[in-house]
Amino acid sequence: MTATVSAPASSGNIGPGFDILALALDLRCTVSATRAVEWSVSHASGFRPENGQEDMTLSAAKAMSAEPLALAVSTEVPLGKGLGSSSAAAAAGAAAALKATTGSIDVDRVYDYVAENEGHPDNAAAAVFGGLVGVTPDGVPVQLPLALRWRIVVAIPDYQLPTAEARAVLDDSIPRPTVVSSLARFMALLEGLRTGDEAVLSAAVGDELHEAPRAGLNPAAGALINAAREAGAAHAAWSGAGPSVIAFVDSADVSDVATALRATMGAGEVRVMDVSEDGLR
């Protein structure tokens, strides 16, 4: 039996939603799993682990299956760009292994595995369950409403920013005024995304918990965020740990925002994306 499962890319944080908010996007990692005499994995697309890097798909499949599987991986999610590539790979690999060996997928088991091993429950939740999702202090995913008004434009530079490097510069303690301002921005972010109120969503811009400390690692992010907002985006933020930037835009402003991002970024790709309402598929 061959089982084929895909999981979406995701944009974590979205500004002040650090480590607790993510949005599933319509780039997908697809894994096919077939019973075999020994473990193997092949990658059909250009996005694959470099030599010496852990193959997240293979590790996830082995965690779900005691018997060997032949895995075939094809992904649209670029690596090291802040688009949840490892969460998508792990979720698809784990789910495909379960489907091939048991005939069904335990989505809660897949989520628990990805969240624990990735250390990013926000991206894990988006990859498994789709849509806009938050995570409670106990790690429980919560589906959140997103106004139909918002279109998603993502600027994807042609360089990588490893998550481990981005996390290494974060502060261990946060001043109280910074926490308060971050909570206020987070409230504006959730309400603006929910209601489609542009003025409220615009109040969520900026972040002192993770974007500001990381600014030196990715100076282009600030320029991209400013360019998106000046062109009409209601909100723009780092996508995950970067270097990509995500913008929430009214339909009428999509072309202007995409043009402004292309002109500001230079080398790289700007994509208008749909939200993936499906997680595992």
Task: Report what the structure shows.
The protein is an alpha+beta fold and 281 residues long. It is built from ten helices and ten strands. The chain has helices spanning 56-64, 85-102, 107-118, 121-129, 163-168, 176-195, 198-202, 211-214, 220-230, 254-265; strands spanning 2-13, 17-35, 40-43, 69-75, 132-135, 141-144, 150-157, 235-238, 245-250, 268-273. The strands form two sheets. Strands 1, 2, 3, 4, 5 and 6 form a six-stranded mixed beta sheet that branches. The protein is globular and about 55 Å long. It starts with a strand and ends in an 8-residue tail after the last strand.
Question: Layout of SSEs?
Answer:
Blueprint: E1 2-13, E2 17-35, E3 40-43, H1 56-64, E4 69-75, H2 85-102, H3 107-118, H4 121-129, E5 132-135, E6 141-144, E7 150-157, H5 163-168, H6 176-195, H7 198-202, H8 211-214, H9 220-230, E8 235-238, E9 245-250, H10 254-265, E10 268-273
Helix pairs in contact: 1-2, 2-3, 2-4, 3-4, 9-10
